[in-house]
Amino acid sequence: MPNPGKHWTASTTLRAAAWCFGRRPPGTWLADMQSRLYWNTLMFESVLTDELSLLTSQLSDLQDRVPLPKFVKMEVPALQRLEEPNSADAFCHYHFLSQIAHRVLIYRIKETIYYSGSYPPSSLEDEFTYQLEQWRHQLPAAIQFEVDSEMPPSRFPRDVVVTPWLRARYLVAKWHISRPFL
After folding, report:
1. Domain of life, per the record (predicted)?
2. What are the domain boundaries of the chain?
């Protein structure tokens, strides 16, 4: 990342712009693109602020107001259409939504376990482990993975990155859940 400070400033600006989010009619392509921008920035900001110990922009305060993307297709006149949607679109959508769900879970783990100020009960570890397993098992078949076995050979180049990335995020979450108990 060339300049983390600029990204932090941009995410702060996005927070101000996101307050206007409710003014777009839901279900429109533009509202959906704003939703994608918000969730992408929120996920990136989470990593950035944790790694560099920056102040948060409180962008996460809006996550209850900003809907998940629905991947609304942009209306294009018939003469301008070049190709029909394919399974690669769905794959990208599934991956994006799985990243959002994982980010929400990690944020809850961080807020509940690390910032509560007291030693967390083991039942909390069990609950977060259960939620993480539910996240993993509910991934669409195209992006599912096994934790304890080798990754199968990839049929597509995208599989070389996406599935191992989700598996790594799963293992990081397991580590965060278990860390206070080690």
Report:
1. Eukaryota
2. 1-72, 88-182
In angstroms, the CA 22 to CA 92 distance is 25
Which H or E run contains 52?
helix 29-52
Q: pLDDT tens digits, residue range 24-61?
A: 666 777 788 788 888 878 887 777 777 677 777 777 78
**Spatial CA neighbour of 39 closest among 85, 100, 105, 122:** 100
Task: State CA 37 to chain mean position distance.
Answer: 11
Burial class (CB in 10 A: 0-12, 13-18, 19+), 125: middle
User: What is the sign of the dihedral through the CA atoms of 59, 65, 71 and 77?
Assistant: negative
Answer for the pair 100, 43: CB distance below 8 angstroms, yes or no: yes
Least confident of 1-5, 109-113, 157-161: 1-5
